[in-house]
Amino acid sequence: MVKKSVCGGRKMSEITIKILNDNEYGIWDEIVQRSPQATAVHKLEWLKIIETHTKSKLYLFVGYLGNQIVAAIPFFYHKSIIVKIISSPIGSTMIANLGPIFPEYDMLKQDKREFYFREFQNELDRYIAKNIKPDSIFILTGPNLLDTRPYIWNNYVVTPKYNYKKNIENLDEIWSGFKKQLRKNIEGAKNAGIVIEEGSLDDYNFIINLLSKRLGDQELAFPISKEYLVDIYNRFYPENLKIFIAKNNGTPITGIIVLCNRDILSIWVGATQVGSKGLYPVDLLQWKIIEWGNKNGYKYCEILGANMPSISYFKSRYNFDLEIYFSVKKENVSFTLINSIYGLINNYLKIRA
Predict the structure, then answer these.
(1) Which domain holds residue 50?
(2) How many domains does the structure of the chain reveal?
C-alpha cells in the first residue's frame, strides 16, 4: 500500500484502510455526523440491526490520511456455499441509499474531494481484493455524491438511479406545482372525510402488514423479516422515524413510514392506494406529510424510488426535482456465470408452473 500521490502539485501522505473493531465503534457515528452524504441508515445502530436480521457480517471501513479520517463506507459480508458478496446496503433491507461518506465534504476544495475519493477507492479495492476476495461488490451511493469516476476507473459498472426531492419551505409554491388532477384528488379525499393522523406502533404494523399483503397478491415474498422493521421502530422512532396514517370513519385504510434526518424528510415505505373508486387517500397523505415537514422545520422532502415507469408516473405528479444517485457493482466471471444459470433455472420453473 506504498503509493505516493500528488494533489495540487504537492506530495501527500498515502491513504490507509482500516476496519474499525468493536471498541472503536464510537468513532463511526462521529464520522456519520460530520458527513453530508450520511443518512439515518448510516448510524451504527441501524447498521447493527441490518447485520442481525440478515445474518451478515458488518465491516466499517475507514480511510486515514495520517491521523485524519477522510472517508468511510459500511459493507455487509455474506457468504453462500458458492459465492462471497459484500454490499452497501443489502438489497433485501428496503434501503435506497448507503455507500461511502466523506467528513466535511461540502467544505473541501474540489482537488481534495477528488483526491480523497480516488485514493480511498484505490486502496479500498486493493484491501478488499487481498483480504476478502469477494465474487461480487454492490453499492448504492447517497444522493449527495455525484462523482462516480473513482468507481469507473476501478472497473465498476455504474448505473444512474433516481429519487424526487424538493425544497418545501414555500407551501404555496409546492401546491401550485402539483399536477391539476393531483390537486383535485387531494381536495376530493378531504371532502370525502379522509383524515390524516400521526401514527403509533399499531399503525406502523398495519402499514407493514398492508405492504406484505400487496406483495403476496403479486406472488412476491416480503423481502426481510417483519421483526427487522419493528427493531427499526423501537430504536429510531420518533427521532428518525414518523408514521402517518389515513383513516376513513376512524378506520385505518393506508399509511406511510417517513424517515427524518437533519433537514430532510424522506417518504419511505407504504402508500398503498386503497378505497372507493375515484378516492385517492395516498395523494392526501403525501400532501399532509409535506405540510407537516414544513411546519416542523424540514427544508426538503424526498420521495424515494423513481426507477420504474409506472412508479415514476405516480410520483412525478408532485413535480419535485429529480435527485440522482448510483448503483455500483463489480462481479467476477464465476459470479456472473452462476447468476446466469440461476436466472435460466428460475425462468424454466416459472414456465413449468
Answers:
(1) 5-161+326-352
(2) 2
**214 and 103 in a common domain:** no
Residues 181 and 42 in one domain: no
**9 and 112 part of one domain:** yes
- Whether 317 maps to a domain, the answer reads no
Residue 310 lies in a domain: no
Q: Are residues 173 and 153 in the same domain?
A: no
Are 197 and 140 contained in the same domain?
no
Provide the grid cell at 98. 448507503
> What pLDDT tens digit does each residue of the chain (353 aa) get?
434 344 444 344 589 999 999 999 999 999 999 999 999 999 999 999 999 999 999 999 999 999 999 999 999 999 987 889 999 999 889 998 999 999 999 999 999 999 999 999 999 999 999 999 999 999 999 998 999 999 999 999 999 999 999 999 999 999 999 999 999 999 999 999 999 999 999 999 999 998 888 877 776 777 788 899 999 999 999 999 999 999 999 999 999 999 999 999 999 988 666 656 778 999 999 999 999 999 999 999 999 999 999 889 899 999 999 999 999 999 985 656 656 555 544 443 344 44
The pTM of the full predicted model, rounded to 2 decimals, is 0.89
